[in-house]
Amino acid sequence: MVQLFLSEPTWSDAGNDESVKQQISLLDKLQNMIWSFIMSCGGRSEARLWLCNSLASISSMTPRHQHELFVKILRSKPPKRAVAAQVLQMIFEKHPRKAGSILAKKSRRLENFFRGHPRRILQWFSNFAGSGNLGHIRGAKALSQFAFVNRDICWEELEWMGKHGQSPAMVATKPHYFLDLDVQRTVENFIENVPEFWSSNEFADSLEDGDILFIDTKFFVDFFVDLMFKEDAKEVWEVINEFLMEEPFSSLCHHLLIILDERELYVFLESLRKVLNPKVESVNFGNPSYWLEIILSKCSDSVSIDQLLLLNAVVSQGRQLLRLVCEEENEEEKVKIKDIVVQVCTCSSHPYSLSSIMKECFKAKTIESVKWLGLQSWALHYRLSEECQTPESWESLFIDNGISFRRPDNYELLHHDGFSDEWESDLDERASVRVRRKKKEKRRKKRRKNHDDIDIYNNEPLDLDMSNNRLSLQSRAGNWLLSTDGYSISWSSVDLPEHLSKHCFSTWMKWIFARWRTEA
Questions:
Q1: How many CB atoms lie within 10 A of CB 397?
Q2: How confident is the model at residue 294 (pLDDT cuts 50, 70, 90)?
Q3: Which of 151-155, 454-458, 516-520 has the lowest mean pLDDT?
Q4: 465-475 pLDDT, tens digit each
Q5: How far apart are CA 357 and CA 498, in angstroms?
Q6: How far apart are CA 84 and CA 227, in angstroms?
Q7: Distance (Å, whole) CA 213 – CA 192
Q8: Of 512, 425, 410, residue with least CA distance to 472
Q9: Contact status, residue 178 vs residue 142, Cβ threshold 8 Å
Q10: N or C end: fewer C-beta atoms under 10 angstroms in the chain?
Q11: In angstroms, rounded to a whole number, what is the distance separating the alpha carbons of residues 95 and 210?
């Protein structure tokens, strides 16, 4: 059975130097194998994405610091147009009015946006209201208002699709006559002969809400990027600065870090290191980013991007890494890594092995401690996913490692039959269970008939099998509540390898940090 080592070791144990050397040697081999998988499977870009996801979960970032980090990227040389474009795309989607207000002040420039583009003209200027509707909107509203106010200089530029044109007086009483306007030809006439329209208040007002951005988002992204880098437009940078202060750090990481190349990402990490200050006194390795904060802020020497990619993969992305390994087509390589995992888990089960490894971690640098314990926890992840395939094997693992467990609370519907919510492996057989079950099934059928076959329990019927004095729950036989997280989450057999391996890593690192504080 797999040993999880959830009892703190006796730090005074002498241990065995040869055993420690052997274990560290195996962990180094495992590290090399994992890195080989990441590189040979084309998984490096995926590993970068995993790292960005872990960075996004950092919760200690202040608005001022996150603003500094991302503005530094935008202001670096050469200009990061791709990053700026993504920031602007986010602003367009979430705060279009802020961009629209800038466009309204530069409405004269949009004359060329419509020149030679019939589709854009029709999309923006064809929104005239029919009879009984609320009114014209967007460019149609601007066009009609400007035409009435300035009819002496532009009414003749209006092109009508009927046999004759409409007079201002007639259209004023029947605004829906604008539906007969030849929009494309009219706007083309305005481009050539009515320059006043493009700088008018009517046209500027139609841009304020930012709806025009979505006619051709790429055009406006490029337009604003040029305002940023070619003109250094103050009003654009003000909107961006405000956005970088208010947008959640996680959202910025998810959308922007994936655009950076590795050199740029490493520069970002170096800047991030300077603003992080995690409190070691409140160790929270349940947060996948906490170990990363510790490494970036506490390591005296530089940590390479390769080390961060590997450590993040084994500590925070164990399930994804296991998937990458399992998808490897080379069966020989898969057998090799499986063999190393078995050796790691077997060697670590020897007496004093854990306490000796812990002592090495205590003496080592932070990065080495995280690496060894991270690799050890991922080996457990792999081994658990291989060995524990049945509810019985999981419950045996819980018992052998001192983990208390119970069935999920949604089985409390059986309490009136005399069952406890803490289900053990063996239950006393109750002779009346089958009778009650039949009555319950009758009641359920009746309810289904009266309520359009809706089961009020919102669950599949439970198949209770009392053979061999055991209760089999066919609907959700592989779910447990565990003492590892205070019975707060129902864990399935699919999720347990990842949960338990991360719990082990968190527990081990807490011991190490506690020792560091004691010795400080």
A1: 20
A2: confident
A3: 454-458
A4: 333 333 333 33
A5: 22
A6: 11
A7: 23
A8: 425
A9: no
A10: C
A11: 8
pLDDT tens-digit map of 497-511: 999 999 999 888 888
419's tokens: 């069952």
Q: For 332-350, what is the mean pLDDT? A: 85
Q: Locate all alpha helices (DSSP H) within 106-200, ordered by sequence.
A: 111-114, 118-125, 138-149, 151-154, 168-173, 183-193, 195-198
CB 263 within 8 A of CB 305: no
CA distance 300 to 154: 72
Query: Quick one: residue 486, left, alpha or beta (phi over 0 = left, psi -120 to 50 = alpha)?
Result: left
Whether residue 305 has pLDDT greater than 70? yes
Report the first-to-last Cα separation within the chain, whole angstroms. Answer: 37
3-class SS letters over 360-374: HHHHCCHHHHHHHHH
Dist. CA 167–CA 172, nearest whole Å = 9
Of 259, 319, 302, which is closest to residue 45 (Cα–Cα)? 259
Cβ atoms of residues 220 and 99 within 8 Å: yes
Angle, alpha carbons 462-494-507 (nearest 5°): 120
Residue listed under structure tokens 């390769």: 306
Residue 346 in tokens: 């077997």
Averaged pLDDT score across all residues of the chain: 82
Nearest-angstrom CA–CA distance, 322 and 217 = 39
Q: What 3-state DSSP class applies to 459?
A: coil
69-77 long-range contacts, CB within 8 A, separation 24+ = 69/268, 69/271, 69/272, 69/275, 70/244, 70/252, 70/256, 71/240, 71/241, 71/244, 72/271, 73/256, 73/260, 73/264, 73/268, 74/228, 74/240, 76/267
Residue type, 460: E
Radius of gyration, alpha carbons of the chain: 33
**Cα–Cα distance measured from residue 60 to residue 225, given in angstroms and rounded to the nearest whole number:** 31
pTM beyond cutoff 0.85: no
Nearest-angstrom CA–CA distance, 33 and 38: 9
Task: Report the pLDDT value the prediction gives residue 510, as an integer from 0 to 100.
Answer: 84
Q: Is the pLDDT of residue 479 over 50?
A: yes
Which positions ≥6 away from 8 have C-beta within 8 Å?
511
**Per-position DSSP letters for 81-93, written without gaps between them:** HHHHHHHHHHHHH
